[in-house]
Design brief:
Elements (H helix, E strand, L loop, with lengths): L5 H17 L2 E5 L6 E3 H18 L6 H10 L4 H4 L7 H21 L4 H12 L3 H20 L3 H5 L4 H12 L3 H16 L1 H4 L4
């Protein structure tokens, strides 16, 4: 086995970590596709949509910090796995699993201090950038469900009320994102019969 410098070893380790991130599959289908998206695709999309909205709406947010939050917000799922928001059993253990995962990431990348700090600051939701990315993260799945005519909602037997209960308070943490949610929800409600399975 080749002997590398510590710096190159660390780089190889982190590149491997990003590949592991791509292996985390979410319960979110790529619209018009036949497969679920992975965490890396989701985080990239979140960063791009944040960039789009910050520019379009001329939001007074630190763009770089938003990108960092978007790219790092789900990294704990490398070791904790994705938790489907409507899986009540998995939700119960989510905090513990993600706390243990962060501990592991801290040990593995103790030299990458800004990454650790970014993950921790995102978890605190104590600044406008983290609440913006958090709310944006919560609106993307219903947006994608809307784009594919409610396929995931139908597949998992979810109701409009389930979506409202799961999303309203979380998205409301950012008024900039909530504006879009109010309009989207009005349309989803109008198309309830089309988007949700009859119970």
């Amino acid at each position: 086995m080749a002997k590398f410098s510590q710096k190159l070893e660390r780089l190889i380790d982190f590149v491997q970590f990003t590949h592991e991130f791509q292996q985390v599959v979410r319960v979110a289908r790529i619209p018009y596709g036949n497969r679920m998206e992975n965490d890396a695709e989701h985080s990239y999309q979140l960063a791009m949509v944040a960039w789009f909205l910050i520019d379009q709406d001329k939001l007074k947010l630190n763009k770089e910090l938003c990108f960092m939050y978007a790219l790092a917000h789900d990294l704990v799922e490398v070791y904790a796995g994705d938790t489907f928001a409507y899986d009540k059993k998995a939700v119960l253990s989510k905090h513990t699993r993600e706390k243990e995962s962060l501990k592991k990431i801290k040990e593995q990348f103790s030299h990458f201090k800004s990454l650790i700090q970014t993950i921790e600051k995102y978890e605190e939701k104590s600044d406008a950038e983290s609440t913006f990315i958090y709310a944006l993260d919560k609106i993307l799945p219903p947006l994608q469900c809307y784009l594919e005519d409610g396929a995931i909602w139908k597949e998992y037997g979810m109701s409009l009320q389930d979506v409202i209960e799961m999303k309203n308070n979380k998205i409301a943490t950012s008024k900039d994102v909530n504006t879009y949610w109010v309009e989207l929800l009005a349309e989803i409600t109008k198309q309830e019969k089309k988007l949700f399975k009859k119970r």
